[in-house]
Amino acid sequence: MALIKSISGIRGTIGGKPGEGLSPLDVVKFTAAYGTWLGQQTENRKVVIGRDGRISGEMIKNLVVSTLVGLGFDVVDLGLSTTPTVELAVTMENAAGGIILTASHNPKEWNALKLLNSKGEFISGEDGAQLLEIAEKEEFNFADVNKLGNYSVDDSYLQKHIDLIVNYPLVDVEAIKARNFKVVVDAVNSTGALFVPPLLNALGVQDVEVLFGEVTGKFSHNPEPLPENLTALSNEVNKSNADLGIAVDPDVDRLCFVCEDGSMFGEEYTLVAVADYVLSKKAGNTVSNMSSTQALKDVTLKHGGEYNPSAVGEVNVVRKMKDTNAVIGGEGNGGIIVPDLHYGRDALIGIGLFLSHLAHSKKSIKALRNSYPDYFISKNKIELDKGVDVKTIFEKIRTKYKNQPINTEDGLKIEFDKDWVHLRTSNTEPIIRIYAESQNETTADNIAKRIMQDIKEFMH
Fold first, then answer.
1. Same fold, 3-155 and 160-370
2. CA of 442: how far to CAs of 38, 433, 447, 451, 455, in Å?
3. Percentage of the chain surpassing pLDDT 90?
């Protein structure tokens, strides 16, 4: 059982004792803390909520709604929705904030409260710290009977989100339609099944086949859109002679593609391709987190822009994008952030821009992928024993590699000529992630192995 309180929200496994998993009592406590925190920021008493397709979603939603209504908030419930849709709805509804009930790419036993501010963006680390303090002290003040909030359901946002994408200046519906794409979608038994096919139809893609299209929350495979979890999609694209495959995670903020031969386009390259297209239409800068491929930097420099790395975490990427006036940014896990639509990872605008790019390129998706520099990222993790002092381990590694360029903004990033390795503790799990990148796959693996060996040595 796990309960993890971090910058990315309150996340936990369902069941078990309060404080050890995401129990109903924890849901009420942290929702009450969020509502209390919101009440300190603003007079506005409106909150938007939405959820992914998880088994526990309905239960969690009922707890969240009752708690917010009990605090005197009017709740607008989008029902089964996506993370980016809820983000957009917060600003379109002029709400004080929003809560998305999703554990993103985590397996079915997990759920979470992702907390948004009035801009429809994830709350900052500073705000999160205040909120956790309120939760710790249980400083809640519920409304009396005459001041209870109201509850309403609004199912118009699926269409509103699609309309925003279809009308976005760089999305070229005519060009997409003309290519007559055949697409297979892996909707992993969550809300992508409700959003991605209608979006594709609106973009002029008529031939759409959906795998795992029932919203049951019983994910047919591990829901993280990584190559090893997308074999069914890969096989189906190949078998049905489709032009491409599209995979999203359960809350539809991550996006990756499969080429016509069933090979992976590579989740790292979703952002690279979309940025290439956006920068070809308007000049500007880009941002990705420092665990993402340097292919984005290559593409940005090619278009005369400036690339800036940020700490890992969507909040950090967004902050850096605002600081550097980036026109496109995101994360190497298939997260696309298009700032003039909204500052949040959005697989749906990603699909619109990627298909526009593919249509304009007049290439197959495989040929498009081959037009980008090849880097290999070796993604690894080490589980942490209880009580391990990560700070000391990082200090020892830093000393060992002190002659290399090192960035400590987020964990440790060490550069070796054209290669790099980035190690950091996860915000959401008791692990150290070790990512290494090189133009040679074996080199990337070897760098990661070497650092993992260091970590193990310094752990004992």
1. yes
2. 50, 18, 9, 14, 20
3. 91
Locate all alpha helices (DSSP H) within 143-290, ordered by sequence.
Answer: 157-166, 173-179, 192-202, 231-239, 267-281
Nearest Cα to Cα of residue 157 among 217, 101, 231, 81: 81
CB atoms within 10 A of CB 50: 28
pLDDT digits (tens, 9 = 90+) for 246-292: 999 999 999 999 999 999 999 999 999 999 999 999 999 999 999 99
- Taking the model in full, what pTM does it have? 0.94
State in words which class domain 376-459 has.
Answer: alpha beta
What DSSP line would sit under 107-132, residue for residue?
A: -TTEEEEEEE-TTSSBPPHHHHHHHH
| Assigned architecture for domain 3-155 | 3-Layer(aba) Sandwich (3.40)
The yes-or-no answer on residue 66 being catalytic is no
Query: What mean pLDDT do residues 396-405 have?
Result: 93
- Amino acid 302 reads K
CA distance to 125, 294, 331, 395, per residue, from 269 (Å)? 28, 10, 10, 32
Pair of tokens at residue 325: 């006036």
Residue 252 Rama label (left phi>0; alpha psi -120 to 50; beta) = left
Domain boundaries of the chain, sorted by first residue: 3-155, 160-370, 376-459
* Contact yes or no for 326/222 (Cβ under 8 A): no
Band the pLDDT of 4: cuts 50, 70, 90: confident
Mapping DSSP to helix (H, G, I), strand (E, B) and coil, where does residue 395 land?
helix
- Tens of pLDDT, residue by residue over 403-426, are 999 999 899 999 998 899 999 987
Domain 160-370 sits in CATH at 3.40.120.10
Q: Which of 23, 56, 104, 291 is catalytic?
A: 104
